[in-house]
Amino acid sequence: xxxxxxxxxLTLVPLAGCGASGSAEPLASAGxxxxxxxxARNADLTSGFCFTLVRGLTxxxxxxxxxxxxxxxxxxxxxxxxxxxxAGARKRFFMGIGRVGNWSVIVEDNGTLGVTxxxxxxxxxxxxxxxxxxxxxxxxxxxxxxxxxxxxxxxxTSAPDRLGGNKPDQFRPTLQATGLxxxxxxxxxxxxxxxxxxxxxxxxxTAQVMQQLEYLLVEVPQA
Length: 223
Prior knowledge:
This protein is an alpha+beta fold. The protein has one domain. It has 6 helices and 10 strands, in the order ββαβαββαβββααβαβ. The chain has helices spanning 59-66, 76-80, 117-120, 172-177, 190-201, 207-210; strands at residues 10-11, 49-55, 69-74, 92-100, 103-109, 129-135, 142-147, 150-156, 203-204, 215-221. The strands form 2 sheets. An 8-stranded antiparallel β-sheet has the order 3-10-4-5-2-6-7-8, sandwiched between helices. Strands 1-9 form a two-stranded antiparallel ribbon.
């Protein structure tokens, strides 16, 4: 097993049940001062990454909806070191799933499941919600929001004014507040994208939180 996926999170407000396996307690450092630019400095994510938040589903429920297989419980180091992302794995996605409150956090090392519409839409059915960001690796970022089985927002950070999705206007105020719209172009949009996800979910994707989570390592067929 050489595939890697991982994620770390921290809530902006206290969340019930955070002491359970795979979850993390909120830390005092959470909030507007949270460091969202850390992925660019993380040697384990240099090839790119995809972070996905899924509301209301547990790790096992996510695996079942995606038709995948649970492998084992691992820590951050086991998920990302050493890792080669999806290189050489053309038929399966590999990812790590942790829990923070009512959200599951999926991390992929250079994977794309989180922004693959035909797969991820199933995780948002029945009034669910999915927030995902694919970034790093020297490529433009992609931010998506799925709601109730539909793609509500699709943003390519290289062309932020050309918003896609069924209801992009609903997200404009938050996109502007986090710097993804209406301001000067940013060289690395990751910090703004993770701030957007935190504003929508109440969950902050910081390096400190990621290192505290336990992950369920999962493999999912790509087709």
